[in-house]
Amino acid sequence: MKPLRPEDPRQVGSYLLRGRLGAGGMGEVYLGRSPGGRDVVVKLIRSEYAGEPKYRRRFAREVQAAQRVGGFHTAQVVEADPEADPPWMVTEYIPGPSLQELVQARGPLSAEAVLALAAQLSEGLAAIHACGLVHRDLKPGNVVMADSGPRIIDFGIAREADASVLTEDGTVVGTYAFMSPEQVHARQVGRASDVFSLGGVLVFAATGHSPFAAGTLPAIVYRIGGAEPELGGIGGELRGLLTACLAKNPEARPTANELLAWLGGSVPDRPFPISTTMTEPGLGRTGATTGDGGKAPGTVRRRFVLGGLAAVAAAAATGVPAAVIASQRGERRDPPAAPARAAASFTGSLTGHGAVVSSVAFAPDGRSVASGGGDGTILLWDVATGRKIRTFTGHTYPVVSIAFSGDGRTMTSGAEIVRVWDVSTARQIRKISTQSRIPGGFDIEIRAMAASPDGRTLATDGAEGHVLLWDVATGKVTRTLPGSSADNAVAFGPRGATLVGGADNIVLWDVATGARIRLFGSMRGAATSIALSSDGRTLAVGGASSATLLWDVATGRKIRTLTGQGDSTGPIAISHDGRTLANTVGREARGSEVIALWDLATGKIIRTLAGHTGTVTSVAFSPDGKSLASASEDRTARLWRLT
């Protein structure tokens, strides 16, 4: 709980406010005290939304939904006034961390505990669906791990099950990493959408990351719609259950009642598969296996489920480490400080992330490299030895981008907000809440971030396709640059004088004046990665579904398309001497993702690097050009010696 701010009210109705619990897309949440002395949760619609009829209707629906579900599946509504100015609702206070907080603090749950959680959440969804509602925003942050069992909260976007659109104006709402394919593509959303989100929540509980975690919002949407979920080392019956929940076709998913029946030990009316595929370590290929030694679905019994649930609840309530109670995975300790610098750079995997690795960046002196994870954690590595030096924690969303200051003393990272760190101590110096600057913005992660060469100016995506420039020292917006339809990627030019960014179209701006210098042509599919050569003459643009394009910055003329070994898609980087470009070109026969190094002068591949068993999410050259760092969905970063 945080203290009340000067602008916060001190009383709502007959309830005294004691502190702030948090904020959502349209509401502020407080801890209050009832006239009889009971702790309660008070939710107020934000003042900027209180005058908008559609937001008042949405708030009223939340109140009605929570009242209709009732029971022990969610927080009980004590009192509400949707007609007040601003509207408010009071619910019972349920002590306990959210599932997101629990996993981030103590690590993933055991398979037994996840199955227990699945049973209780399925029961909660079944109750919600029985009321004719679809929750539509089930995520780890909306599951409270109370000592009496998990509760599903926040019905802010719940709608009737037969609703044909997502909102009054058809826009997409919810948290992208746990959305269903029908949500991200703005199709009709029904009960099956909640089951898909449940599958994502359970994967997070078991692994610490979303099954579709990626470094950018477009990449997440792409993976939800067309890629297989990342289930890590999950096996047995749990893997079968998750695979069924995460089916792309809504009709292929089990209902909440079917899940509950299966987890309780009885056979559902409509069976779903438990024979699943397992990833072979180091190959990235699949082979058939049957969960739990081929036992039938009914082998998971009620006493097993309730026993696992008790362990999770006890861990949340007592503060005893979940590793002790629920047999969770190992301790999260940093190794000793790295030894003296070796003569040659380390080559190989950097293992230590518990989720997808989403970004990498070298320090200015090239002696260390930072990697950001889908779980919001940043690790700093010694390039000479491959040893982990330091861990930075605080983010709750995948780390989209990492940038060092010119002197290497501070590091800036972007996820749900931007955080500035002291590199030597891992202490957070400052946080920059970019979402607060976006009118009507929901709680989604930053899609694009770049720092100027001196590290003093930051560029992030903003509202309505605009790009925001920030002073890192003060955390204030210094300029707003008019963008195109969206901005998925941004990059500074030499000395930070220019900035390039965009998605459907690529724009070049003058940083000092904010003037648009040039508009580059569009590409097939939205851009997801942008790089400028150190001399500012060559622009490279990559997308999730198109080959990398090279442009002449001075003239705006397209130079060439990089082709030759499949489409050159995904993340891109240009070496500091401007001669070499790195990106990905698909997979080799053994299943390894292939990184290609291209000669920019000729447009030819000069070398390929294979080793990652998951999709590569980020690449970066060392300052001297002798090493390359890469990040992947296989939960590793890698260092490659190039000379």
Description:
- The longest helix is centred in the first third of the chain and has 20 residues, at 111-130.
- Strand 19 and strand 20 form a beta hairpin.
- By secondary structure, the protein is an alpha+beta fold.
- It is 19% helix and 33% strand.
- Among the domains are: 11-92, 2-Layer Sandwich (Phosphorylase Kinase, domain 1); 99-325, Transferase(Phosphotransferase) domain 1 (Transferase(Phosphotransferase), domain 1); 523-643, YVTN repeat-like/Quinoprotein amine dehydrogenase (Methylamine Dehydrogenase, Chain H, 7 Propeller), CATH 2.130.10.10.
- Strands 1-2-3-4-6-5 form a six-stranded antiparallel beta sheet. Strands 13-40-39-38 form a four-stranded antiparallel beta sheet, with no helix packed on it.
- Helix 4 (111-130) packs antiparallel against helix 6 and helix 4 crosses helix 10 (302-318).
- The model is unreliable at 157-174, 266-344 and 435-444 (pLDDT under 50).
- The radius of gyration is 25 Å and the shape is globular.
- The protein is built from eleven helices and 40 strands.
- The relative contact order is 0.08.
